[in-house]
Amino acid sequence: MSYVTSLYHVVFSTYNRQPTISAANKEHLYRVIAARIKEMKSKALIINGVQDHLHILLSLSPQIALSDLMRDIKAKSSMWAKSSGLFPLFQGWEKEYGAFSLSANHKEPVYDYIKSQDTHHDLVSLENELERLVLKAGLTFYRHNADLAD
Questions:
Q1: Please, are residues 99 and 29 in contact by the beta-carbon 8 Å criterion?
Q2: Hey, how many other C-beta atoms are within 10 angstroms of the C-beta on 149?
Q3: How many beta carbons lie within 10 A of that of residue 67, not counting itself?
Q4: The pLDDT value given to residue 121
Q5: What 3-state class would DSSP assign to 98?
Q6: What pLDDT score does 147 carry?
Q7: What are the angstrom distances between the C-alpha of 48 and each of 3, 35, 139?
């Protein structure tokens, strides 16, 4: 028998980081995303966010590539959000995303962090939040819309 755990903290934003996810309807969107994750043999432990981005703590099936899961949930949820009428200004998701692997002992703190997104973003911008997550993971952070050419 194989034993595999693949926990990820995933962050992605709306197209051009526009504030198009209304608080009144975001739970509908989260249910659509969670259902699609489940259909892909994975599990969303929590989904939360604010008007311009969302966070997902997920357990990824060893049968699914993370990039395939992300492409699928972003495409399907984007089509749903546009056709639902609940998010009239929603244009889609940014192409990029952040996915940070976690050990099991970090699951609860990340869960609590995602749960508190509404109050967290009263103090911290998306850009600063992403920078902290990326640097903490040991990666290079690039500013949104920055000229990346050398």
A1: no
A2: 4
A3: 10
A4: 65
A5: strand
A6: 43
A7: 28, 15, 24
Q: Residue 17 CB: number of other CB atoms within 10 A?
A: 15
Q: Which of 52, 48, 69 is nearest to 16 (CA)?
A: 52
Tokens representing 109 are: 């703190």
The full 3-state SS of 47-83, as one line of letters, equals EEEECCEEEEEEECCCCCCHHHHHHHHHHHHHHHHHH
Letter for the amino acid at 129? E
CB 44 within 8 A of CB 38: yes
Whole-angstrom distance, CA of residue 117 vs CA of residue 97: 17
Please give the model's pTM, rounded to 2 decimal places: 0.87
Which residues in the chain land under pLDDT 50? 146-150
Q: DSSP letters of 25-50? A: THHHHHHHHHHHHHHTT-EEEEEEEE
Q: Which positions ≥6 away from 7 have C-beta within 8 Å?
A: 57, 58, 59, 60, 101, 102, 103, 104, 106, 107
